[in-house]
Amino acid sequence: MKIESIPIVKRLDGSYLSLTKVVVGEGRPKLFLGASIHGDELTPIASLWRLIEYLKVADVKGSLVMILGMNPEGIAFGKRFDPYFHVDINRVYPGDKEGILPRRIAFTIFQIAKDADIAVDIHTAGVCIPFILIDPIEGELKERVLEYSKSMGVTVLEEYEEKQYKAEHLSESLPPKLLDEGIPSFTLELPGGLRIDWKGVNVGYKALINLMIELGMIDTSPVTIDEYPVIKEDGFRRYDVRSSSAGILEPYVELGDYVDKFTPLGVVRNLVGKIEEWVRCEKSGYVVSMPSRSVVYPADRLFTMAVRD
Ligand SMILES: [Zn+2]
Question: Which of 54, 62, 75, 231 is 20 to 30 A removed from 277 (C-alpha atoms)?
């Protein structure tokens, strides 16, 4: 195992802001794993710790290239964005060598990731079941991405419909920019956030083991994900249910529940407990995530659902 510190910029005290790259094995296939580009999403780092421990005693074919903490200052300050420029680094790919700090970080990550044969960008989505997100692609590359992602044993979802995908500038995140280069890539969302979800850590670790088996990098039996519900059916995409009022959310559903359209997912109550809103989804689907805060405001994302068009 090789640990390398990649300097990005010199700070005013003369120290370097650096990315930590860990490489296990050598040659092809080369699997890139990036953790925690959002500095308030810490579960992925611990999943990579477990994977690294496991690989110390495994016979690995090819190589793993990992960046543990792709947003080091965000992680240090507990912030999603980079704390100097308040930029979402996962919206500025492929980055810019001469740009401001977040663009330089994105540039460096992109150069490393695009040398891989497959890349997984690992995030967290708060109170959620673990799930994989597939960016809009077609053809043979999509088939490969689906094959790899399904091997991991967690829920696989396609991204938001086109209008919301564009509105959230998701095409400027790491996986779609790698897909543009012909490299299979997708996002893995684990439970947790600023507080690590340790069951989610296990899920991430096990899902990555399954991917390595699929890639022929290790020779062992696939492991079952049983820490959280898994949606096994195909053809679902992510879809947000938002509130129309302010108040306190009382959910009526659990993660992984299947809910028929217009069935209440919960209620929003005001301070004296009066119901302000029945929260419903206009499509049938599974509950993928719930808000980590109970107080909600109009247009807050309350539930992420897995729905079919
Ligand atoms: Zn994220």
Answer: 231
